[in-house]
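Table 4 source record.
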Amino acid sequence: MLSLCCILALLASFCPDTSGTTAGVKVKLTQKGLEYGQKIGIPILLKKLKAIDLPEMNGSVGVFLIGRVAYSLTGMKVLNVRLPQSAVGLVPGIGVSLIISDGYIDTGGNWRVKFLGFISDSGTFDLSVCGLTITTTITIKSDGTGRPMVRSANCEASLSHARIRLRGGASWLYNMFNGYINKKVRKELQRKICPLVSENIQKINSYMKTLNVLKKIDRYAEIEYGLTESPVVSVSSTELSLKGEFYNIGVHKKPAFAPTPFSLPPNERNMLYMGISAFTANSAGFVYKNAGALRLRITDKMIPRAFPYRLNTKTFEALIPQIAKQYPNMMMKLLVKAATAPTVTFAPNNVTLQANTTVTVYAIQPNTTLTTLFILNVDASLSAHVYVIRKNLAGKLSLNKFNIDLGTSYIGPFKVKPLASFLQIMLKIVIPHVNVILQRGFPLPNIANISLVKPRLVIMKVSLYPSYEQTWMHEVLNVLCIYEPLL
């Protein structure tokens, strides 16, 4: 029942009390998504119904001219179950409704009777119970520890009529079983159905524990997905507002910026929609900058041999003559470091990253000590190709343009413009190192064994507070994740 559990868990997902916090990520599950869960879940429910354990039944009934007839029904088993009609729907403000109708259950077993103190008879029977109807509502709430919990509420089960077929025995037994015994078997089956349904819905809570409310990404960062408010259930979809914020491992320090409220577009053609705002991406930059992870040391060994420049003072002689004079025949090293946290902006069909960095240039002395030569300020604009890989959102950067100016010089004044070509080569070394990390991606909200099938990703602008018809716009990345039935 995992796939159905996953659908319901996404509905209930992430319920800690964080009211008042604006969402960085939003997820919308549509009616189509629920119906996919229904297709997967109903066969599992059939299997569970077939495993119903029917106890031995004993009793007696008065029969005209004979008196009391003692009976026993033993070895009863459910032979077959059919649930031809079922429907799931959203109950605004509550959760999910499940309605099953026109089902039937076939049972079989052994019967035995004894009357007049010494006469006994026995045989086998088949009992078909028709008109099975199950209705229940699946409510969603917090379990009090910050984890979501679902339960079955207002469950009702009914079986309209039954037909028994006896093998062995006398014909007069038929009427006795068809009346009193049929009713008793129907009642026993009916009594067991709702607890079985509730038990299996309750099992969904074990899958809730796999929700990546707080997911470690690497040694620097983790991401938190927790509901910032209760799920909003409408007649056609359920929208979840998730925190979607990166933190340093074990240190939940807030950045100076905050997410801007947004709503997902009204499109409901697909099963699942996910919107990731620029806040989530920028909180990642804030965290990695704080951790000191946005730095890279470049040595000559990292430069391909085919490149026209080598990382030594002789190469720089033509660009900055005083370097070769003051530090002749020395190798060099660069430290590229983020001066501020990078900023990501989203525009329709475009993701841009603005990086403000410093490049510190060192000469390596014969005794391996480093001497600082100068520090450059580099402002780079990069485009990002963003895509979904497995359960992660990944990306790849490419350079648009960059500007450089001299921050500090320890070798006297010089013009930085001649360094542009050299710096462009250095950025071609830095960017692939960054892309190796970005291509691993960061985890999207997920629970065990859910996979994205044919996900589509678009970048668009959506209205801020659209219900108030304001014209302000908020940039948001919408990941359209389509769960298509693999049938």
